[in-house]
Structures are given as C-alpha cells and as structure tokens.
Design brief:
Number of strands of chain B: 4
Radius of gyration of chain B: 17 Å
CATH class of the largest domain in chain A: Mainly Beta
Strand content of chain A: 35-45%
Number of domains of chain B: 1
Distance between the termini of chain B: 31 Å
Number of strands of chain A: 43
Oligomer: heterodimer
CATH architecture of the largest domain in chain A: Sandwich
Shape of chain B: elongated
Number of helices of chain A: 10
C-alpha cells in the first residue's frame, strides 16, 4: 500500500494539516477523546450558526488511469445535524470540491458522492447510519477510470471494515487525473449546534487503509489479539461490543460487525452459519490484515448466533470458530487437546487454530454481567483459601496436578464456597465462592445461553459463574480437567484453558465467558521432593507433592525400589511463588532387599571419653541426631571385658535419653581389673545403631594415698 | 491547485487586501463585476518543534444562510463575519496567495452536490 498521509492529530497545533479555517464562532480544535489509534487527541468540529470550519491537507497527487485513492478516518457524531452536512470534500483536477465529497444526513446516514466528467452524480450510501457518540471507521474509495472512454471509475463506501455500497461505471478519467487537496471538518453545509469528532485520517493509493490497531504486547492471547464479533445493525449487540472496548481494552479496530447475522441463537445448518457469520468475518479480516495477522482469539458477542445444526446435532459456534479457516468437518480432532506439557498458546503454537468463547445471555445487561464476573475473577488476586473445586473425578483430585492448584477439593454435591465445578451434575447451590468456571460435559448442558434452563446457563445467569463450558447438543463432550486447570494455573487465559481441554473442534463444546479471564491460584505452601541417596539425587524441578499452607503432614502413595535409600525434602513457597533455596525438612526412607520400608537409622555416638576414677570409669560421649536419622531412646556401653572382642550382647551399662534437648551423656562403670576396650552405641526399641569409636583403657592403679612429710 | 503569487511575507499585525479573481467568484458576490474587498490581518506566528503556524483574520466576508434544508449550498450573505485561518508549513511569502485562494473557494460558484444524492428510501433524487 502506498500510504500518502497518516494524520493522527497528535502533533501540537494541528501540525499535520496545512490549514485551519474557522468562520465566525465555528471551531475545529483538538480535544481529548476515545483513543481509536495513536494518542487520544481527536479533532472536534463545532458549528455555530451557519459558519464553516475545516482543516485542509494539500495532496497534489496524480492518479494513474485505473488507480485508486482511499480516504479513511474514524468519525463520531456528537449530535444530529438539522440538515445535510458535509464532513469531507476533495478538490479534484477540475478544481471542483464536489468531485468527491461525503454527506451526513439528519439521521446520521453517511453517503459519499462523486461527479463524473460530465457533471453527473454517482453516490454510494449507507442507509443504517452512524451511531451517536460512537466512533465508526469510514473509508471512501475512488477509482479513476482506466481510459478516456473506459467508463470504469468506481466509488465505494466502507463502514467499520466492510464494503457497504459502491457505484460503478463512472466516467471520471479527466476529473480525477489528480486530487489536489482534502478538507475535513465541515467544509460545507454548516448546521447550527452540530458537532462531531474525527481522527486517524489515512490517505492511501491503491490499497484499503486499515485502521490503526494496537501492537500486541506479548505473543499470548490478549486484547490486541482478540476480535469481537457483533451484529452490526443491532444496537444492543453493538453496545456490548463497545463494552468490550471499554472494559477489556479491546482495540476499537478489533470489532468485527456482522451485517448479515440474525438474532437467532441457533441456526438451521452450517451453510446458514457460514452466510451469517463466517463470510462476513472473512471479508472483514481481509480488509484488516494487521488484525488478522495478530488475531488468535474470537469473542462472539451478545446476540450473535451461537449454534447451528449439522448431522442432527446442535453444534457450537465457538467450537467451529476455533477451527476457522479450515473447511467445516464435524468432530475434528483438536490438535491442542491434552498436550504432554501444558504451555501458553502463542499464535504460532496454535498452528492455525483459534481460541473462541462466547458471551450471550437473555439480556444485554446479563451479558455485561458475565464480562464483569470475568474481570472480577481476574482482579481478585489469589482465590480465597476457602474456595473449593468440586469434581467427581477422584483420580484427578488425587493427582499431583490437582495438588498443584493448592485448592480445597471435594466431590460433587451441594456447592458451598465453590470456585470450580467440573463434572456431570445437577447444580445444588450453597453459599457462593468465587464461582469462576462451571464445566458440565453432559448432554445438552449448554444448549442455550439465552435462558437459565440448562446446567451451564443456570450457572452463569443464576449463580453468576464467570464462565462455563458444556455440550451444545445431544451428546456429551470429552474434556480434560488436568489440561484445563494446568493452563489456568500457569497463567493462561480462560480461552486457552478451553482450547487444551476439549477433544474435538467443529463439534459440540460450547465455551462461555470472557476469553482473557485469568485465575490466580494460591502459590503459597510447601513442595515435597524425593531423590535417591542424598540431596544431590533430588530433581528440584519436579516436586512429588504440593501442600497448601497450614497442614504439616501429607499422605503419599509411593513406589519404592528394594535396597534403596530415598531422601525426601520439603521447601516452602512464598505467596509470590518464590521457592526457598534452603531445605529445612528432610527425611529418609530405606528399603531392604525385599522392598520393605526400614525405620530411620540411628547414628553413631561421637567423642567417647573415659575418665579414671578411684573405683570406677566415667564414660562420656555426645549424641546428635542429624536430619534424616532417628532419635535414640538410650545408649549401650559395650566392653570387651579384656578379651579383645566387644561383647555386643551384654552391655556393661545403659543410659536412658530422658530429654530431647540433651546431647552429652556420662555413665560410670566399675573399674575393671584388666585393660579393656570400651565403646557406645545408640538404641531405639529393638533397633541398635552403629558403634562409636573404641576407647582403650589400660590397666591403671589408683594413685597412692598422699603422705604428709 | 492553489495559485502562487510571491509577495513579501506579512509583517506582524500587517493588514493586506487580498487580490481575488472575479472569474472564480460567484457573480452574486460581485459588485459591478468587481470582487468584494477582503482584508487579511496577520495576528501572530507560533513556532513549534514540528512546524510554524501563522494566524490570520480575514475580514469583509459574508457568511451564508443555507435556507431550510433544501438543495442550497449557495451562500446568501447576511452579515460580515470574521474568518480565522491558521496556515501551517509553506513559505510565509506564499501566505497571501493561499489566503486569497481559500477566500475564492468560499465565494466560488458551488455545484450543488446534493443533486447527486439518491433518496435512500426511493432510490431517486432528493
């Protein structure tokens, strides 16, 4: 595309324009307005009396025979003009400002007109009209006739990214040899009290100028990668799309109007769905290639068809649009389903698939409520510690993946403090928890969103769940809880979680909720690790269990190999998800050759000493219990009784360990008559520990009595 | 295309009568075949990092009454109204000709664009 000018009105003092013209009290000035593009300044034209006000851009551009010129801009009427008014005029090669001009009627219908070389008029008009106080993107396109007598000039009007009307067969070869200048604001037809805003003016040759849209901040689903579909001519559907702009920060350029979509929630067949939704979506994406390149997620808005029937089954529109761009084939395998390792979904990783959710309801306000609930979940920080995950999938609830959520789990029943419900259930509502996501894969659990008559729609519309997933038709859907919750746990959005959890595309799984909703599971708690041998054998990247804060014990089922020594360690994780580097809690598990778990070992007493007393020997030693070893009940003093071989069966003395904070011990024994070897060992019940160092005690006599000389 | 007659730039506060071409002006504004006397006054100049803006006030122009919404863009002068013009970029020596050009546009014979508009209901002309 040859973009001649991009006027975003952000340069001070209208520096992007060549001229400003204000007659009388009419004005055209920059004001802060809704950001449709770069910056937030828009140009506001305010008419007082019958005086014009406009800005002018000198173009002086020649059009090749058969060449196109496009004028694109955002426009927001602030009031109804009392009669026809002219937002845009172009001066052509014949010096006329009526060669190309636009006209706004009193009911805000927008039209664009041109005159041919003979002065005859040609018009492309839009009968539905602009909307008061709402920005719409208009593009006027004019093609110069390809030859003097070719009579193939064209005039087109695009509205919000879709071709609305055109006039063809125009003989304008001479008139549009050049386009000299552009005037915008109100260059003609001033109507007292009328005002409107315009912004982001793009003038281009030979290619449609798509509106500015924000550059995505990340590769992952986000507002700039989300396209909201709405019914163009339905005021409430349009209002919901605008709500997505204000509440989700969806760029206004990412709103895709569907001029052919009906109000029917469920369509007769796929061909009807294609005609009402996909064809217009495709045309819109073609005119918005930047949005198309960025888009990884669709949101079907309020009032947009959500189902169609195929093969006798009601199919889900969200499931179909996840496979958008590929020929419809019922029950297509989802390549994103149940990945070996759940990771955030980039557009590249999705391999041409899309994310898609739907927000529809019985009323516009309820649709807005669903969006608000999603924002509430995303903004609440960590889920409350009392929140629960209800599921009858006991295997999943016992799994490591579920432990990692650090959330209380329970079987299906009365839902009290419920944050998640997963499974085939008849809802029994108790006191509300955060109520984030309700998933019921059973038959027709989400057959409508416009009445609270199915499990999922009741959960959303009555119990105020932020999101739901269920089956649209008379068959269940296969969903994977582990992938779903793991995606949420790692920070993925709701739409990503749905995408990895459903087995089939082009099928029955219907997803409801704000696609960008996230859930913050608690990160604080303790991680349990296991390794062979010592600490060096632990893989710190792979905990074997996750504990919520509070409990100081956990029951684990472990498969241990015979004849091995395993080390178990626990590290705490902070609320910000940072895991400590120290290891304060360690335990060992030893197995014998039969694989029987052995008790924790006793360690060796240290520093044995012997003090010779008058008639006794005082044995001293130290016993410390290192991490991973068992405490001793007491100690045995062993002697060789002069034989040179310690008698392990008959200790010459024992010491009871009465207190856990005592580490040094002494015990007297009778002084033997011969040189002896002495040693000490710890004892716990029937278990005895290794022998300490051996102390040799020579035969010594008692010192003679002191004689006073 | 704006014509260009190089005159000295306006000095601060200078008033200058614009030279309008009678053949480009709607005869209804001519008096004995002569264009109306229109005067441009330089008000101020602002220098911005990106450009220079020169501000003028044009006096002697009539505005028009468009009538009750009929196909009428032909101005009917009924009062003398000042016009404020901001010229950006360009050479100040061209300002006089630029001001004259837009004044001529304002007073020119205007084709009636509304004759081109189809009635959206009937498909005919309004």
């Amino acid at each position: 595309m040859s973009l001649l000018h991009y006027i975003d009105n952000e340069v001070p003092a209208l520096g992007e324009w060549d001229l400003k013209f204000e007659a009388g009290d009419s004005t055209i000035v920059p004001v802060a307005g809704d950001a449709c593009g770069r910056g937030d300044a828009v140009l506001r034209t305010t008419i007082v009396g019958t005086d014009v006000a406009y800005v002018q851009k000198n173009l002086n551009v020649s059009l090749d025979p058969g060449g196109w010129i496009y004028f694109g801009f955002w426009m927001r009427p602030g009031s109804y003009p009392s009669n026809y008014t002219y937002p845009l005029m172009v001066k052509d090669a014949l010096g006329s400002t009526t060669g190309l001009y636009s006209l706004l009627l009193t009911d805000l219908q927008i039209k664009v007109s041109t005159k041919d070389d003979g002065g005859a008029a040609h018009t492309a008009g839009y009968v539905t009209g602009l909307v008061l106080d709402r920005f719409s993107y208009l593009v006027f396109a004019l093609r110069r006739s390809s030859g003097v007598a070719a009579n193939d000039g064209v005039l087109r009007l695009y509205f919000d990214g879709q071709l609305l009307d055109e006039a063809t067969g125009i003989d304008n070869y001479d008139r549009f040899a050049s386009v000299d200048l552009l005037r915008m604001g109100c260059p003609a037809g001033p109507r007292d009290g009328y005002w409107y805003d315009f912004d982001e003016v793009k003038i281009a040759l030979d290619e449609y100028p798509e509106p500015f849209t924000s550059t995505p901040l990340t590769d992952y689903p986000e507002a700039a990668r989300t396209v909201v579909l709405f019914r163009r001519d339905d005021s409430e559907s349009r209002e919901f799309a605008d709500y997505c702009v204000s509440e989700l920060d969806i760029p206004r350029a990412n709103l895709c109007p569907l001029p052919n979509a009906t109000a029917n929630e469920s369509l007769a067949d796929y061909a009807t769905f294609e005609a009402e939704v996909e064809t217009d979506l495709a045309a819109w994406l073609t005119l918005n290639p930047t949005v198309a390149a960025n888009c990884s997620c669709f949101l079907l808005g309020y009032g947009v068809p959500g189902y169609f029937t195929s093969g006798g089954l009601k199919h889900s529109a969200t499931s179909r649009l996840m496979n958008y761009g590929t020929a419809f084939s019922s029950q297509t395998t989802n390549p994103l389903y149940n990945p070996a390792t759940v990771a955030r979904l980039t557009k590249a990783a999705m391999g041409g698939k899309y994310l898609c959710t739907r927000i529809d309801a019985d009323t516009l306000q309820h649709s807005k409520d669903v969006l608000d609930c999603g924002l509430r979940i995303a903004d609440c920080g960590f889920l409350p510690a009392t929140d629960k995950l209800f599921s009858n999938d006991s295997a999943y609830r016992a799994s490591l993946a579920c432990q990692h959520l650090r959330i209380i789990t329970a079987g299906l029943g009365t839902f009290a403090d419920d944050a998640f419900v997963w499974g085939n259930t008849m809802p029994d509502w108790g006191s509300a928890g955060s109520r984030a996501v309700f998933v019921d894969p059973s038959v027709a659990s989400l057959g409508t969103m416009r009445a609270a008559t199915t499990e999922c729609s009741e959960a959303v519309l009555t119990a105020l769940y932020a999101a739901a997933m269920g089956s649209a038709g008379n068959d269940g859907i296969n969903v994977d809880a582990e992938s779903f919750f793991e995606m949420l746990r790692i920070g993925g959005s709701l739409a990503e979680a749905f995408a990895v959890a459903v087995e089939h595309l082009d099928y029955l799984a219907a997803a409801v909720g704000s696609p960008l909703m996230t859930v913050a599971f608690s990160t604080t708690g303790n991680n349990v690790y296991r390794g062979l041998g010592g600490l060096e054998g632990i893989e710190w990247e792979n905990p074997i269990a996750y504990l919520m804060p509070g409990p100081n014990s956990i029951t684990l089922s472990q498969n241990l190999s015979p004849g091995q020594r395993y080390i178990y360690a626990v590290r705490s994780v902070s609320s910000s998800g940072v895991q400590e580097r120290n290891t304060h809690v360690i335990a060992y598990a030893n197995t014998d050759e039969q694989g029987i778990l052995l008790p924790a070992p006793l360690t060796r007493p240290k520093d044995p000493t012997v003090e010779v007393q008058h008639s006794a020997l005082l044995i001293g030693f130290t016993y410390l219990t290192p991490i991973g070893f068992a405490d001793a009940d007491g100690f045995d003093v062993l002697s060789d009784n002069g034989t040179g071989q310690l008698d392990l069966e008959n200790p010459v003395a024992t010491v009871e360990k009465s207190r856990n904070d005592r580490f040094d011990f002494e015990v007297p024994i009778d002084r033997p008559d011969t040189p002896v070897l002495l040693a000490v060992r710890a004892r716990r019940g029937e278990q005895v520990g290794p022998i300490s160092e051996i102390v040799f005690v020579p035969l010594v006599s008692a010192p003679a009595s002191i004689q006073i000389l | 295309m704006e014509f260009s007659i190089h005159n000295p730039p306006f000095s601060k506060g200078e008033k200058r009568t614009l030279t309008l071409r009678a053949e480009r002006i709607d005869p209804k504004y001519l008096t004995d075949g002569e264009p109306p006397s229109v005067e441009a006054e330089h008000k101020r100049t602002e220098r911005h990092p990106t450009h220079e803006s020169r501000f003028y006030e044009i006096q002697g122009l009539g505005t028009w009454d468009l009538g009750p919404g009929e196909n009428n863009l032909h101005p009917t002068p009924y009062a003398l109204r000042p016009v404020f013009v901001q010229l950006n970029h360009g050479h100040p020596a061209d300002d006089e000709s630029r001001l004259a050009s837009i004044t001529e546009d304002l007073l020119s014979v205007v084709e009636n664009p509304q004759s081109a508009i189809r009635n959206p209901q009937s498909g005919g002309e309004i």
